[in-house]
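Let us begin with a simple case.
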Amino acid sequence: MKNKLGVHAQVWVGGWSHEEAARAIASTASLGYDYIEAPALDPSLIDIDFTRKELEKAGLGITTSLGLDDSCDISAGDPGKKARGEAHLMQVVKTTRDLGGTHITGILYSGFQKYFTAATKEGVAGAVEVLQRVAEEAAKSNITLGLEVVNRYETNVINTAAQGVELCKRVGMANVKVHLDCYHMNIEEADAEQAIIDTGDYLGYFHTGESHRGYLGTGSIDFVKIFRGLVKANYQGPICFESFSSAVAGEPLTGILGIWRNLWTDSTDLCRHAMEFTQAQMHAAKQAQAIGGSVDW
């Protein structure tokens, strides 16, 4: 089975106006990608009818991603924040459903921010309760929730693949999976390849991205091990390329992620390279697996 390949919309555009949505969708489709990942930090900014028509015209699929802000932090142990976060996530489910989307991913379990204290047991338990209800609603539309494992500067709840698996187990819903991102794994994991393998069937979404957020293969990430891990884990889900440059990235991501440098200006060249790089790495990993798995007596 071939993994579906996608690209994050912010390699093309900083927002989701009609012009931006049309350009991002058409550009993604023109390079042969299977889907686009649209930012849903504020789902009210997405014109559902317009976006769906553009997707259908391009023959493209869609996923959505977000991180909750502090006012909607379902892990905070604050009843008001918990209620607002649940309402926000339910709205994203509705938006994704109406777009014909398949996955909602990102920091769905806490605020997308730097924390200065550790998560509490009570706060995480509250997040689990909310995620169970949101997952139940998402399941009605065959939508998978991907709990993105991110670095210590973006959440205090799950920073490693093992923690992501544990949170999925606590939620206990078949459509709640771990979303791994090699940019974050490069910071937090002792052995990214083994972490992918150990995540196993809980892995439901994957982001490729370089250590400096630029062109794949030009930073410090060992992509040979990353893709060998995906093959060994028999991962067959979506693989989305994510990259940010100050030339394109819009608020609030620019500030939250610290996108201060202009790492690229040619989005088309960047995404074409990412497609070719991903296909070549996946092919090489599969060949390595085939050779390693055979014995010539």
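The second case is a distinct protein. As before, the sequence precedes its structure tokens.
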Amino acid sequence: MTDPGRSADHDPGQGDSRGPDLELRAVRGMGEIRPGNDLPAIVADALAPLAPQDGDIVVVTSKVVSKAEGRIRPAAEREQAITEESVRLVASRAHPGGITRIVEHRTGLVLAAAGVDASNTDDGTILLLPVDSDASARAIAERLRSRFGAAIGVVVSDTLGRAWRVGQTDVAIGAAGVRVLEPVGTDANGRPLLVTAPAIADEIAGAAELVAGKADGVPVVLVRGLGRHVTDLDEPGARRLVRPPGDDMFRLGSDEAYRAGREAGRIDALAEAGAQHAG
């Protein structure tokens, strides 16, 4: 994805306030990933023809990470797997096909069905999210940096819905060597951006999904042109993007919040009645 009106070697820092050119390349030839495969080595081999360089970012879909890690269960165990992967029910809704559960995953992500998915996997099986997507991203980044002698960042992506918008988009659930949040700065007029913090890693994951697609067999995308966001491997990973509970203004679904409020009111009323009786 490159601006056709600009040359590939254009330097955005030389009197031009526009952003840099951005190139996204589908990485092909990985084949089917199976449990126990050396995924970092497979990704490196597939990337070699594209000559990775300093500042490149590699986006890897979580499904191939889960497959390599053996995070596969029989489809019949789907509901059990959702329960085991969840630490808290956020909301649930009944529908003709069953019940949709929005839950807090053990990693802090809030998503439908704890990320348990039956797409792009063998019939009769389901995939769970990776054990630790930040650690998985770091393992891939370490291998790529060693193989190509270049500072390369890695994002592990997955598809999430949005609470206030229809449809889904890919976001970062793991990252290594990538600045996941843009530092707070100023707008074009020099005014401080007090609450604006672009989720760079999510934007990268969403852009990569446009190239990978859902059914094209492309689990890895090379992103070139965002080297300013590539960092050392000690940079915080995608876990940093999970909103802390104390800052979460929408911690429960509406029905669950109503029930909690009614229950709290009932307990308060009983306590007040007990205090009056004791008096």
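The first strand starts at residue 23 and ends at 27. The chain has two domains: 23-71+130-248, 252-279.
Keep these points in mind for the review questions at the end of the chapter.
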